[in-house]
Every structure is written in C-alpha cells, then in structure tokens.
Queue: 2 jobs
Job 1
Amino acid sequence: MSLYSGLSQEQLQAQYQEVKQQYDEFKARNMHLNMSRGKPSTAQLDMSLDIFDSVNALNGYKAKDGTDCRNYGNLTGLDECKTIFAQSLGVQNDNIIVCGNSSLNIMFDYISQCMTNGAGGEPWMLQGPIKFICPVPGYDRHFGICEYFNIEMVNVPMLESGPDMDKVEELIKDSSVKGMFCVPKYSNPLGITFSDETVRRIASMKPAAKDFRIIWDNAYFVHDIVEDGDTLLNIFPEAEKNGNEDMIIEFASTSKISFPGAGVAVLAASENNIKQIAARMKRQIIGYDKINQLRHARVLKDGAGLREYMKRHAAILKPKFEIVVKSLDRDLTGLGIAEWTHPRGGYFVNLDVMNGCAKRVVELCAEAGVTLTGAGATYPYFKDPNDSNIRIAPSYPSLDELREAMNLITLAVRLAALEKLMDN
Amino acid sequence: MSLYSGLSQEQLQAQYQEVKQQYDEFKARNMHLNMSRGKPSTAQLDMSLDIFDSVNALNGYKAKDGTDCRNYGNLTGLDECKTIFAQSLGVQNDNIIVCGNSSLNIMFDYISQCMTNGAGGEPWMLQGPIKFICPVPGYDRHFGICEYFNIEMVNVPMLESGPDMDKVEELIKDSSVKGMFCVPKYSNPLGITFSDETVRRIASMKPAAKDFRIIWDNAYFVHDIVEDGDTLLNIFPEAEKNGNEDMIIEFASTSKISFPGAGVAVLAASENNIKQIAARMKRQIIGYDKINQLRHARVLKDGAGLREYMKRHAAILKPKFEIVVKSLDRDLTGLGIAEWTHPRGGYFVNLDVMNGCAKRVVELCAEAGVTLTGAGATYPYFKDPNDSNIRIAPSYPSLDELREAMNLITLAVRLAALEKLMDN
C-alpha cells in the first residue's frame, strides 16, 4: 500500500470506489455494537461470581476485627480491604479510605470539597475563576467534573513520557491554576505510563497556588495486558522528599477488577489529607457498604492475590487488543493517514486519523452500526483541535464482533481520508 | 411517689442517700452497653440474610429489563428497586433516584449541590451567609451537615403537631433562610408524626427565598412499632396544589429495613428536581451499586412486600420500646422531674429531665457503663438551652440489657434531680 498523499486525483477516485463499495457491503449487514466505553465483557464479569457468595449466612459477615459488617459504623473502611489497595499502591493502610463503588464519585466529591471548604486554604469557590491543567487527549469524565464546577480547563499535550512538563511547570506559575488531572499508568486513551522523570517532576512542583491538587487517577494500577507490564514510580515517597505529600490525592477502584456496577473504590492520601477528608466524611455518611468491602477482601485477599487475579483478566483481554492492533497494522500501515498505539495495559487503543477526519470516521462507523466513543470526547469541551483523535475500547465485544468492527473501522478511516483528499 | 419539688431538704437528703446507694451498687456491676445510636439489633439483621443470597450464580444478576447489573450503566437506579419506594412513598418511579447505602450521604450531597450550583438560582455559596430552620429537638447529623457548610441554624420548637408553623412562617420572610430539615414521621427523637395541617402548611409556604428547600427526611416511613401506625399525609400532591413541588426533596433508605451497612437509599423529587439532580449525577458517577439494588428488589418486592417485612421488625422492636416506656412510667411517674414519649414507631424514646440535668444524667450513666446519646446532641451546635433533653435508643440492646439499662437511667434521672434540688 502506498501513501495516500502521493496519489493522483484519479487514483484517489479509484481507491474511493473500492473502499466505498466495501463499506456499503458492511453497512448492509446491519451490525449493532456499542464500543463507546471501556466496559468489561461478560466473560470478565463471570470470573468474579465468587465475590457474591463470599458473604452470606454460611460464610458469615464479620470482619477480621469482629465488626458485624451489616450494621452501622466504620467510617474509613475495613482494614482487610484497605490492605489490598495499600499493598498494590505502595502506601500504608492508614493512607487509604475505602468508599462506595465509584472512584469517579470520590474524585467529584473531592473537587466538591475543595470548592466549598478548600484544600487547606480558602474555598476554591470564593477565590474567583480557577483553572485545571488537563493533559490531552484524556478522560472525558474528568473534563465533565471541571465543567460542572465551572473550572476552566487548560490543555497540555501528552508526550511519550507523560504530560509535557515544561508546559505544566509554566502554567503552575499562575495561582488561579488549582490542579491537574492525571491517569499516570496506561493513560486513558493513550496507554502511556508516566516516566520516572515525569513522576519526579510532578512530585517536586512548586505551584503558585498553595492549595494546588494533583488528581492522580490510577484507574489501571494493576491492569496489565502483557506479562511484564509497565511500572509506575510511586509518587508519594517522591512527593514527601519535596514536602509535597499533601498535593497528591490518588484514586483507584475494582470497577475493572470485579464489577463496574458493584465494586469498591478507594482514595490514597497523606496523613493531613486523610484527616481533612475523614472530617468531612463524618458529616457525610455513617459508613460505606462494608459488606461489599468484605466480599472483595475475602476473594482478592491482598496485593499478591490481586496481581494473580488480574492475570485472568489479561488472558481475556490480550487477544482482543491483539485483534485491534493487528487490524490497524494490517489495514492502515503505509497509508500515511493514521497512527495508533500498541498498549501494554489499560483499556484503550488510541487511534489518530487524518486531521479533520475523526468526527467523520465515528459517523461512518455509527451509520454502519458500530458506536465508537464520540469524536472530541478525549478533549475538554469536546473540542479536539485537530479533529483527529479516536478512542477504541476493545474489552466489551466478543472476538468475532471485534474482528468485524475493526474491519469496519479501518475502512471508515480510509474512506474519511479519501473523502478529505478528494475534497482538497 | 411524691413530687420532688414538695420535699423538704431533709427528705431530699434521705431520698438522695437511698438512690445514691442503689446507683453505686449498679456501678459496681461494671456494665458495658452502648445505647448512643439507633442501631438495629443482631436479631433484626439476621432477618435479612436472604438478601445476600438473592443475587449469585444460581439466581442470576439480571434486572427485569435484562440489564446485567454487574456492569456499567443505569444512572438513576433499577426500576424494580424504585417500585418499592415509589409505592411506599406515594410517588411515581420516575420521581425516584436510587443511590448508594446512605440517605445521609444523599442529603449531604444535595446541600452540596445547592452550595456550588444552586437550587434553580444562584449558588448558595455566592449569596452570602445563609440559614436553615431546624425543628428542635432534632437529628444531630442534620445539624452536622449545616455546620460543615457553615449554614447558620435557627431553632424552631416541635409541638405535638410538628414544627411550630407560626414561627416557621415568620422565619421564611427572610430571604437568607434557604431551607428546613424535617423528619416528618416518627421524628427523631420525639417520635411525632406531623399532622395533616402541618404538612399542608409546609406544602403551601411562600418563602422569600425562591430557592428554598425542604429536606423531607422520611427516615421512618414504614417503621411502625404498633399495629395501626401513624399516617403521614403525602406532601407532594399538597405541594403541587401550591406550585411548590420543587421545594420538597424527600429521602428514605433501607438502613433500618435491611442493613445499615449495606442497604440502599433513595431520594424522591419533582420532575424538575430529578432533572437537575440527574444532570449532576451524570458528571458524578456512572451508576450506583445495581447488584445491591437488585438484591433488595428481589427480597422486598414492592410496597406491600415492604409493609409485610416491617411487621417482623416491629415484632422485635415492640417489646424493647415497652420496656423503656414501662420503666419510665414505673420509676418516674409522679416525681415531677421528667417527661417522656410513648412512640408508636421510629427508633427513639424522648426523655426530658429536669432543666440543667441532662448532661449530668448522661454522665452518671456513662460512669456506670451505659453510653447514651450525648446530652445536647439533639440541638444545633450541641446547645440544648435547657440542658434537659435525652434521647433513648432501645433497638440495639437485648431485652435483659435494656431492663438493666433502664433501671440505671431512671436512677440517674432521680439522682441528678436530687443533686440539683439539694444544691438550690
């Protein structure tokens, strides 16, 4: 295959006819597949059915310390559930708070806390307009939180090593810049793990805002696809070296370990932050669902148990990622109209198509029955400046569905590029 | 027994010696009992063990509409779970949102929403100092929410019919008064159910603040102790007659139906409010724990199922409330040093002791090993102006423990009164 940019108008026409015909044949097949979100497949959910049976009349409902998990009490979560996350994230149990089933909810609530009661300083809401740094492309639901609270988002490009730290270090000189969202491991959607140097530079930042906060959304902390997955440098010891431990709040959950609809989520933070957050929680709730924490603790056991558990997810996910990447390699290599990632973990393959073509590709796929993540969703305010970024989520479809969908997607990428080139 | 106020100093001395000796004997027994909160007993929790087994590999994890409850999706909750609450509260399923395990959390979050994003108007946080009306005595955790958000609390006395509406109607002429907390049925701690007239007056209020909100915490909506329990007038149709349906947000939970540590909680609201709250939720969470919603739906079934279920709780609770009330009747009638309630539902017996004695009674009980709710907790800022109100929570102890505890409590009430009278 040759570079599309080198083709004459006649050659483009010929290519277009061929690709269009294949696309139309596809369309006639009336596929119906939603690939818009990083949703675990049924096979992955079936893996975790033990969790439902781990707490019942037979197995009992008492935590190791004797707590009857059915009743009131225990504000910050069961110790045995904290252990799983503490060991996996490299912090102490005292640095963990276990909440409900959604880390997004905890992040939202933490920003809400900063808005009304501050992050050690004045409430953010009373400080006039404030801003957050958003590495792009990124996670749409992070952007949604900022939008809800009317926090202006400033884009910073992601490099191979993580966010462009030169730009970040410049932006934090503005005291109205109050924070930054990061997915430091297998980032959504790029699959990039921040380099040790990036983690160290983040941990040693001296923002003008004394109440600056890093939302360290470690959503894919144990979510390797390959056997020797990426290693993320633990940010807390690095932050401590710089007296910056209060600047970081880390989040994780079992949404993609056990059940997205019925997992547990945690935050990890410094002693000061845990105190501040727990003081709020005391007014907010008597205790989160301890029975569900107990279910997870009994099945996942500890850090090592969790690592073993995740190997079974990897076995299900790996063939799916291979289909995506191999399809892209096979159909799009050498055409000069797209670039894509070969992620080693996480939930997404990032596909950058020709500038001005992402919306069209998503539209073409939708018209043929395959829903992709909305073009633009990976940028604040849904504004992808190049209209080029597409997020592919391989986890939910079956292998056969995924093969079909990838055939469609690569056709759509070619078709959109040809339309664009013929248009010029 | 005769009025303490009619006794001479010598008679008081004699009484004091007698009561003090009995109290000291009690103290020597080294009891250890925490009666500070309205905690269901183990027997009540054991009633609900079916809930744990209602969702598993055998019984499946799909909702009636086919939703796999293990996965992402479904923002406002499972329809079959909404049905239970809608039928019990007298609203439509569309007026219900099912959340996590804590109605306190939903109330906190709703106030938080009003603070940062307003209740249809400007964010409360940007409107300068604001106030809430708090009927007293009331629920300490409501006061805690106001304190956290720096909302000034204004006391309004509870009458036999509910809050003193003359006072309420006066207070709402101030546009900085933004809301009122109510426990309209079997109120905490008085056990009063608001009269139809009170509900109608609340529903027809015209507060100066257009963004005024009633936090209608219907915590004990199906929590009768006697067979023919109180009936609370449904506030929504009354509010609708006055175009006031957006002024009311209702809350309920299964904390005292299934498990305080692992139940489900809901809010009920007008179409406008549901829209506004759901728009926020879209940024806040992908969906609450649907599996736990399914567990509850399968066991509780519907409004009628819930009513039947609650009869079993009543059978456990009724003897406990009888012990409390009979002990008070037996030991304190005619002394002129205390008044108490004979509640028909809810979780508390309200005990008003001689002015200036509540703290001392709680202290005397604590010294003899029985922890009561802190004196003052039933008032904002922990300030009971008369130092007379004590909340008794009969649910958690066994019948034997409760008998013992009540013997201690009535002794302590007498001892504190005698100390006070001898002191004068």
Note: The two ends of chain B are 21 Å apart (CA to CA).
Job 2
Amino acid sequence: MNFNQNVSNAWRKNNSLVCVGLDPDPKRFPDQFAGKNDAIFAFNRAIIDATADLVCSFKPQIAHYAALGAEHQLLQTIQYIHQNHPDIPVILDSKRGDIGSTAEKYADEAFQRFEADAVTINPYLGFDSIEPFSRHQDKGVIVLCRTSNPSSASIQNLMVGEHKLYEKIAEMAVNEWNENSNISLVVGATNPKELGKIRAIIGDMMLLVPGIGAQGGDTQAAISNGQDEQGAGLMVNSSRGVLYASQGPDFADAARQVTEQMRDEINQYRKIV
Amino acid sequence: MNFNQNVSNAWRKNNSLVCVGLDPDPKRFPDQFAGKNDAIFAFNRAIIDATADLVCSFKPQIAHYAALGAEHQLLQTIQYIHQNHPDIPVILDSKRGDIGSTAEKYADEAFQRFEADAVTINPYLGFDSIEPFSRHQDKGVIVLCRTSNPSSASIQNLMVGEHKLYEKIAEMAVNEWNENSNISLVVGATNPKELGKIRAIIGDMMLLVPGIGAQGGDTQAAISNGQDEQGAGLMVNSSRGVLYASQGPDFADAARQVTEQMRDEINQYRKIV
C-alpha cells in the first residue's frame, strides 16, 4: 500500500478530509504539562487520541521540534501514531529542497529516521531535488505550489508566459514529475480561486490544503473549488485552531470538538460524502 | 559586528574566498574514525584545524547531520569553530522556507540552537518567509537564486516577462528584501555566465558560490564573472572535494593542500588580491 491509498482509506473510514497539524508550542500548553520532560510528546498524544477517528492524516511540522531540540519527541509522536492508529498516515512537514546528493540525506531524515509516510518539498531546485524522495514509491511527496502566506504571491504569481508560476509548477508536477504516482501539491485555502485553477490542471491529484483556521481561509470556497470529481482529493489542515482550541484542562475535548466541526463543515460542501 | 563584516575580515586576514563545506559522510571517513561515537565531530575538527587559516567561512550542511540524528555533533562542530577559530563565520546550510510563524522557529533552530552566524533560505514563499531570519541584523541570510544542480534551470530560468526567474529573485533581494543589509545570494559556479548577470544586478552584494570541485564548475569563469569591484564579494564553497581529498590517514593534510590550491587558483583570477 502506498501513501495515497492510505489517505483514501482514511478518508472513507473516518468520512473526513481533515488533517491535524502537530505544531507544538510549549508556551501555549495547558498548565498540566508545565515542567514535564516529555511535554511535547504527552501533549501530542492527547491530541492524537482525541482526534484520530476524525482525520485522514496527521502532519507534524518539523521546525517546532527542531527549534527546541525535540527530535526524539517527534519520533515518539510518529511512532505512537503508527502503533496506535495505524490507519492514519503521517506527513512530515519539512519543506526541504536541495541538490540531489543532499536531497537523499533529507529523504533519509524523513523516511528512515522519522518514519514518516510523506514529506513536503519545495520545488525551486527542480526535479532532481524531488526525485530522491519520489523514488520511494510507497511514500508521498507533497510539493509546494501555491502557499497560504501573504507574500507568497510575489513569487508564485509571477507571470511565466501566459500562466502564473504556481500553474507552471502544477503542470510540471502532473506532466513531468509524477512518474511514480506519488506526487501531490500544497495549495493554501487562503486562495480559493487558485485552488480551482490548480484542480483544473491536475485532475485527481491530491492536495494538502493549509490555511483554514488561524490563517483565515474560507472553508466553503476552498472545498467547492478544491475537491476532485469524487468529492475528495483534499487533506485540509488545521494546526493552531485545533491544538489551542482551549488552553485549559479540557484542551483535548476542545480539540476533538473543533476537529469534528471542521470535518462536518467540510462534508457539507463535498459533492459526494 | 555583523556577518558580512566578519566575512570581509576573514577574506582579508586569510587572503581567501574559500568556504569549506562540512558535509560529513561517515562511510567515506578514514578507518581511524570507525566505531567512534563522536566520529563526525572528530572528523570535522581535524578538517577545521587543517583549513581554518585558509578560508573565509565554514558551511555545515544540516541534512548530513539530521539523517544520522547527529544534531549534537553539529552543535559541537559550530561551537568548536567559534571557540578555536573565532574569526571564521559559520553558515548553517539548511535552505529553509516556510510561512512566517514557522520561519521564526527555523530562525531559532539556526541562530539560537545551533549558534550559526548565517543561514541559507529558499525564496519560493516570498519575503514574509525571509524576514524572520533577516530581522536578526547581525546574522547573514543567504537566499537561493541560481543553484548548481542540473534541473535547477527548469524552474529558475523560466522567463518572467523579459527576465528569468533567478534574475527577478536577485532584483527583489537587492531592491525589496535587503532592508537590514544582511541578505546575500546562492549562485552556482556551474553557471558562470549567469553569475555575471547576477553580479550586474546586485552591485556589491555577497554571493555564496557552490559547485566548484565535485560538481564540476570552472574556477576561472566563476571568479571572473562573479567577483565584485574589489575582487571579492564571493564565498566559493567546496565540500566533498576538500573533505574526501584523501580517505587515508593523511586526509587532513590532503584537505589542507586542496584548500590551499583552491585559494591560490581563485586568487589568480581576482582583480585585486
């Protein structure tokens, strides 16, 4: 089984397109974690157990661990998901991009060291920076296309001939890079019209869609424009909106509630649920 | 003192534009390191001591440490340089790029956790992914512009209006992003004509130039086209060519010899030495 099939199965099993981002920020943890050595893992574990039957994937963002020297707790988190919720694939959000020989080392980081099922990748260096990841046919490789941050348009919307750079990236992803059928794209919910343009280019390729929640993306517009012909094809990520729904002792219940609401809101706008 | 001044001082002190890349690959280490727990740090230390009076900077590439879970040895390496060769700045080559709130975490990774003097950055997300690094005015922020790998042209040479994407990046770096005068660019030696075009756009902005050595770049063409009006403005990186000049017990002497040759060859083509 490969990553895309695993996500499809999780979509169906949990009737959910939601991806929960695991971006731990100990300053925002409830008091009960204060002073704990494994606070990050313990917090993540509670979030995972509270939401695993409501999601199609989990996505730890590596900078939140690397800034704190918490690589071990990142690995514990991923292994915990594999062991206790084996139907839910894990995306390591690291947005790596480097020359081929170095990209091989980053693939080792993601797939061997951290046991991730998929990884996010930056396309600026071209295919020889992507192929060391995509050669792992059972793994997912999710390439940045149109990101959710404010200044992304200054680069990604540059006109390349008659198309924008992000459209060119989408086109290369479909027509040139997807030889192992394991490429997908990152497209922010903050640009719903562009989600629609990208869907028209890529057919049924999968999209990872951040930007709902803390970043302010519109769910209806994002789902209406982004879904594929089967009412799926999306992993819609929320990180801060779920993790810090409450900072009190009820944080896990609050995270579950927000995730459930998000799942249900998304499902309202799917062609087929 | 900021990063750019520190590099300038090292240029003068060692009369050298050479940057040695610290990309450890234990499989290629001499036998004397076999089985050692701190083999990476011990190897790096020998290379550093053998070359520190011949270089303007050191550049550890983080993937080589992350793939092996060797973050502690990366920190040891950087601290060793600061303590024993305080005149030589350290660039953490990590090519990070993410939305603003995450970029802050990556800046913590580079500057707080690993104590680097500068970091490499991917521009695909635009300025709000760069500013969390460049707000640290004493640190250097080295933005990918025209990279040395074969498929880089498929993206970076796309025509944006009348210019190529990499030229647009260079122009934005100079005119829009350099508010703290601490931005510089990565331009591969494998494209010497493009080095010249970029130099014409950026004036005396500094360039980090990989691609000499294992990647086959032409030294004369790169220096002739890339240097600034003062015969400087470049950090010319070699990693594998220096580190693995010999895989026998004489590896440190061989690394020194290759570095010295490279320095002298580069100096031949500088307008002013």
Note: The longest helix of chain A spans residues 251-268.
